[in-house]
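Hypothesis: this fold can be encoded by more than one sequence.
Test: take the structure tokens below, design a sequence, compare later.
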């Protein structure tokens, strides 16, 4: 049975209604330098909210007849959707949440590609310019609220999780919502959706009218992790490095639920930053949490971190098993410490300017066979550099698993090869095997996982 499709003309919803002739031209441009293909891909992902898939390439192929066109209006513009998935509509009307997300995609793609030309002297390899770009994108999306007290709990975790883990993440979100905290996630399903859904109930019980459910994503991953409908503020950053920087700059603490390689990448990014000497006195609460059945999972993660980065890294987080109330209390108290510190240092509540991020965590890593094979996975370097290179290894595996370009490279040339010091590589291989065994690499019910990586004995 073929899926029904709908043609529709959609009015703006959100913060972008007008475009310049130049911006319209770039969005219509189907050449390599144009934005049409990128916009179409992200728009299709948004329209597939709630669909159980994590394969961006397959999604694009399944909807090869989908198109989106800009229709200029006297007072702005509309979007014409052609062969759009019918499940995005109710009685012929596009769901309001999806309409908001659609115009958020339009807003961020246009802005991200225009701002480097408008900032005098902007350099893509300059750390300050990269942080300023992240700030400008978040400000343009109206995510930064100057008058608001710190209340943003970042929740990371897998999109491929079982029902028990999902329910636990939802209960943690509920407890956070009861304490007036808002949620930032990667905006997708699983452990990204659960905390938001739980927080909506907690906020409703406490009559919190301005609860925030911020979803932060990037073009290469949005097809694999389509925004869940709870997200009421969606932001698309240009790449994974800027996405991760956005999390730690506008979040006030981090909760990590069980996940796969994407979650491991996020953990290593965060710990690598917190291990930088300049950040040693910076309060930033981090909690790893899950059900009783997840205790072994976090024991594995903890051992991997201690082996690779030492006990100092492990001191940056607290592991709490099967206790949503305690998780929420620790996060609330930790965020109060953040507020006290920011006030004393006269730093903004809405954007963590004081956090030092080494350029190695900011420069985009291009996952390809050459770069993956050349990763410096050895111990003869500072701890935060070990974290940075392990982060890149996980980033490459994520690309090979779910990103269109990464999937294509693995199909054409075989798995990415990862090599290095056996004392780092062997534990890495063991952890990846556990991710596969626990079905954390792909969504349940999808085709059998075929590894996008291959561990080789040494970098020699």
């Amino acid at each position: 049975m073929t899926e029904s499709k709908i043609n529709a003309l959609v009015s703006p919803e959100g913060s972008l209604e007008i475009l310049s002739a130049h911006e319209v031209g770039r969005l219509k441009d189907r050449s390599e330098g144009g934005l049409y293909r990128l916009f179409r891909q992200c728009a299709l992902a948004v329209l597939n909210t709630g669909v159980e898939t994590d394969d961006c390439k397959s999604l694009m192929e399944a909807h090869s007849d989908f198109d989106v066109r800009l229709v200029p209006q006297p007072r702005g513009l509309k979007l014409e959707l052609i062969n759009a998935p019918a499940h995005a509509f109710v009685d012929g009307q596009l769901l309001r949440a999806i309409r908001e997300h659609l115009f958020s995609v339009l807003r961020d793609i246009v802005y991200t590609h225009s701002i480097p030309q408008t900032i005098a002297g902007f350099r893509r390899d300059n750390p300050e310019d990269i942080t300023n770009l992240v700030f400008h994108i978040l400000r343009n999306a109206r995510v930064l609220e100057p008058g608001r007290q710190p209340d943003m709990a970042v929740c990371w975790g897998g999109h491929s999780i079982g029902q028990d883990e999902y329910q636990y993440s939802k209960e943690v979100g509920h407890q956070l919502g009861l304490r007036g905290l808002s949620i930032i996630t990667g905006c997708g399903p699983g452990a990204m959706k659960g905390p938001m859904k739980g927080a909506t109930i907690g906020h409703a019980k406490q009559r919190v009218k301005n609860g925030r459910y911020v979803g932060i994503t990037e073009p290469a991953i949005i097809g694999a992790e389509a925004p869940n409908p709870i997200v009421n503020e969606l932001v698309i950053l240009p790449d994974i490095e800027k996405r991760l920087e956005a999390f730690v700059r506008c979040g006030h603490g981090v909760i990590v639920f069980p996940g796969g390689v994407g979650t491991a990448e996020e953990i290593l990014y965060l710990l690598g930053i917190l291990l930088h000497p300049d950040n040693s006195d910076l309060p930033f609460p981090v909690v790893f949490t899950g059900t009783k059945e997840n205790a072994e999972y976090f024991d594995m993660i903890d051992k991997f971190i201690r082996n690779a980065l030492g006990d100092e890294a492990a001191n940056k987080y607290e592991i709490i098993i099967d206790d949503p109330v305690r998780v929420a209390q620790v996060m609330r108290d930790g965020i109060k410490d953040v507020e006290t510190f920011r006030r004393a240092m006269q730093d903004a509540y809405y954007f963590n300017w004081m956090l030092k991020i080494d350029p190695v965590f900011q420069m985009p890593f291009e996952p390809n066979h050459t770069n993956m094979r050349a990763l410096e996975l050895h111990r003869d370097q500072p701890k935060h550099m070990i974290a940075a290179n392990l982060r890149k290894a996980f980033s490459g595996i994520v690309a090979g698993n779910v990103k269109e370009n990464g999937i294509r490279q693995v199909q054409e040339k075989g798995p990415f090869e990862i090599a290095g010091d056996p004392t780092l590589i062997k534990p890495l291989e063991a952890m990846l095997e556990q991710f596969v065994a626990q079905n954390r690499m792909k969504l349940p019910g999808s085709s059998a996982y075929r590894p996008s990586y291959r561990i080789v004995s040494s970098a020699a």
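The chain has a mean pLDDT of 88. The domain at 5-118 is CATH 3.30.1850.10 (MCP/YpsA-like).
Hypothesis status: open.
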